[in-house]
TrEMBL record:
GO terms for molecular function: DNA binding. It holds the Pfam family Response_reg. Residues 13-129 form the Response regulatory domain. Residues 156-221 form the HTH luxR-type domain. Keywords: DNA-binding, Phosphoprotein, Transcription, Transcription regulation. SUPFAM superfamilies: C-terminal effector domain of the bipartite response regulators, CheY-like. One of its GO terms (biological process) is regulation of DNA-templated transcription. The modification 4-aspartylphosphate is found at residue 64. It comes from the Bacteria. The lineage of its organism: Bacteria, Bacillati, Actinomycetota, Actinomycetes, Propionibacteriales. This is DNA-binding NarL/FixJ family response regulator. Coiled coil: none annotated.
Length: 223
């Protein structure tokens, strides 16, 4: 990340990976239209995306799922295996549920639909760069919940027994894709309290972020 100047917000370095030049051009315009974001490089396939992350160390990578050769999913797994600090936001279409689930497990920071408004993409970049929240487009969250709600839950991890009743409630709501504000409204508690509960859930279960928490909630039948 670029070193901050006193009184100026630090710049977030963003890399773009998509096999369609027009898509990359559109993403570049969205990113470079923001004073705190800058594009550090582009890649046209998954292999090039892995090399780009290694060479430039971007804060955030926007990574298309479907690309020729090494696709985005395989690239995500390679980036995760390399231990890169880059947060990866996958760009997907509406019909790729199986990819969403697999890449969530591999460590994707979130999934965005390609037809989302530019301001939502910018918000997502800033959010994951801060390490605050991992993101799923609401439509994808609903589809994942629908897909796994009827599946028999896996054996609940022993660690789940370490959660308080309230923390278990919060974990279930994370599995439904709710934001902190939505969880606060659902449970009639303050948003700051929700943040504390989320942090404790992640710590007790040894989870990296909200995406992993959502996966556990889905697999354990809590969502």
């Amino acid at each position: 990340m670029t070193a901050p100047t006193i009184g100026v917000a630090p710049t977030i370095g963003v890399a773009l990976a998509d096999d369609q030049p027009l898509v990359r051009s559109g993403l570049r315009m969205i990113v470079e239209g923001e004073p705190d974001l800058r594009v550090v490089g582009e890649a046209c396939d998954g292999a090039a995306a892995v090399e780009l992350v290694a060479a430039t160390g971007p804060d955030v990578l926007l990574l298309d799922v479907q690309m020729p050769g090494v696709d985005g999913l395989a690239a995500m797994e390679r980036i995760a295996a390399a231990g890169a600090a880059t947060r990866v936001l996958m760009l997907t279409t509406f019909d790729l549920d199986e990819y969403v689930y697999r890449a969530m497990r591999a460590g994707a920071a979130g999934f965005l639909l390609k037809d989302m408004p530019g301001e939502d993409i910018v918000t997502a970049i800033r959010q994951v760069a801060r390490g605050v929240d991992a993101l799923l487009a609401p439509a994808l969250t609903r589809r994942l919940v629908d897909r796994y709600a009827g599946a028999p839950p896996r054996a609940v991890a022993t660690e789940l027994g370490r959660l308080t009743e309230r923390e278990t409630e919060v974990l279930g709501l994370l599995g439904r894709g709710l934001s902190n504000a939505e969880i606060a409204a659902e449970l009639f508690i303050g948003e700051t309290t929700v943040k504390t509960h989320v942090a404790r859930v992640l710590m007790k279960l040894g989870l990296r972020d909200r995406v992993q928490a959502a996966i556990l909630a889905l697999e354990s039948g809590l969502a």
